[in-house]
Design goal:
Layout lengths: L12 E9 L5 E3 L7 E8 L1 E6 L4 E4 L3 E5 L4 E5 L4 E9 L1
Antiparallel strand pairs: 1-8, 2-7, 3-6, 3-8, 4-5, 4-7
Length: about 90
């Protein structure tokens, strides 16, 4: 079974990343180009993900989309976390 999480707009560029993170090593990212969006599916663990000023806690199986053209964070909580991250530039 497959579930579409986010459709690609026409003319968009998408990069896919496998993210592996350990607690105590937050990844703070600077803003990307205007119009960038990020989509994160957390495969295992728990993590704080999203815009630096509005990040949310995800558990395994959770999905979030947020603007990537502002400061953002990925931080494993309580143990290792693995995720699929899609960066989309329009």
């Amino acid at each position: 079974m497959a579930t579409l999480l986010a459709a690609s707009p026409p003319g968009a560029r998408r990069d896919l990343y496998r993210v592996t993170a350990e607690p105590g090593r937050a990844q703070h990212s600077a803003p990307h180009a205007a119009g960038t969006a990020e989509h994160v599916y957390l495969a295992s663990g728990r993590a704080l993900v999203g815009p630096t000023d509005a990040a949310v806690e995800l558990s395994a199986g959770d999905f979030i989309s947020y603007p990537g053209d502002g400061p953002h964070i990925f931080e494993a909580l309580g143990g290792p976390a693995d995720a699929l991250l899609v960066s989309e530039q329009r």
